[in-house]
Write a structure and sequence with these properties.
- The protein is an alpha/beta fold.
- The radius of gyration is 16 Å and the shape is globular.
- Helices cover 40% and strands 15% of the residues.
- The chain has 9 helices and 8 strands.
- It has a 6-stranded mixed β-sheet.
- It starts with 14 loop residues before the first helix and ends with a helix.
- The structure holds uracil and iron/sulfur cluster.
- Iron/sulfur cluster is lined by residues 4, 22, 25-28, 30-31, 37, 94-96, 115, 118-119, 122.
Length: 214
């Protein structure tokens, strides 16, 4: 297994065709332990695409992104920021759940760079069809997949930025003239000492997106 590319349909394929091909992916070992692939979902004409890390336990079981606790929090933040949820598409940098067993519990494990790189062709294929105006980068894993290792979410969050020249494989992501807003991952809000402050920070960053869409 050396990446998803051989499993991704050709450029002529629709987003639905691409989604239909994803369950066959053997591009890295993560498919072995996971229940199913979790592809992006939402409006095929979305102006905004949110990119998270990888499915969690609930997403792995349901086959849909951001339907667990982090997803509920994200939905609340999107509402509070005044972004119309009907105009969104939500996906992840890595499309299978990576976890470790601890007793009978499946504990989330952050994907490695190898998983991010292996899964990237699916993300590229989504972007090629969606061509969003604004990309919302949720946390460090999405930033690594989209913008490369030198991008710091904590330094750049909440700013409407042009697609950086330092992004890996320039021209790979068909996003011109997309702009991006980076922010913390909703799971980081759930883990924060002060969840209220962390949530308000996430909402403030998403308001930048809402203003850019207005
Ligand atoms: N966290 C993510 O990054 N993505 C999901 O789909 C769920 C939780
Ligand atoms: Fe393929 Fe991505 Fe799943 Fe790895 S994580 S098997 S590259 S879909």
């Amino acid at each position: 297994a050396s990446g998803a590319q051989p499993y991704v349909p050709p450029a002529s394929a629709s987003l639905d065709d691409v989604r239909a091909a994803a369950p066959n992916c053997r591009g890295c070992e993560l498919y072995e332990g996971a229940t199913q692939v979790v592809f992006g979902r939402g409006d095929a004409h979305a102006r905004v695409v949110f990119v998270g890390e990888q499915p969690g336990d609930v997403e792995d079981q349901r086959g849909l992104p951001f339907v667990g606790p982090a997803g509920h929090l994200l939905r609340r933040a999107v509402d509070a920021a005044g972004i119309d949820p009907a105009h969104l598409y939500i996906t992840n940098a890595v499309k299978h759940f990576r976890f470790q067993m601890r007793g009978k519990r499946r504990i989330h494990q952050t994907p490695d760079q190898t998983h991010i790189v292996a899964c990237r062709p699916w993300l590229v294929a989504e972007f090629a069809r969606l061509r969003p105006e604004i990309v919302v980068v949720l946390g460090a894993t999405a930033a690594k997949a989209l913008l490369g290792p030198s991008f710091r979410v904590t330094r750049s969050r909440g700013e409407l930025l042009p697609w950086p020249a330092s992004a890996p494989n320039p021209g790979d992501f068909p996003v011109e003239p997309a702009r991006l807003v980076a922010t913390i991952h909703p799971s980081a809000v759930l883990r924060a000492d002060n969840q209220e402050i962390a949530f308000d920070g996430l909402v403030a960053d998403l308001k930048v997106v809402a203003r850019a869409l207005a």
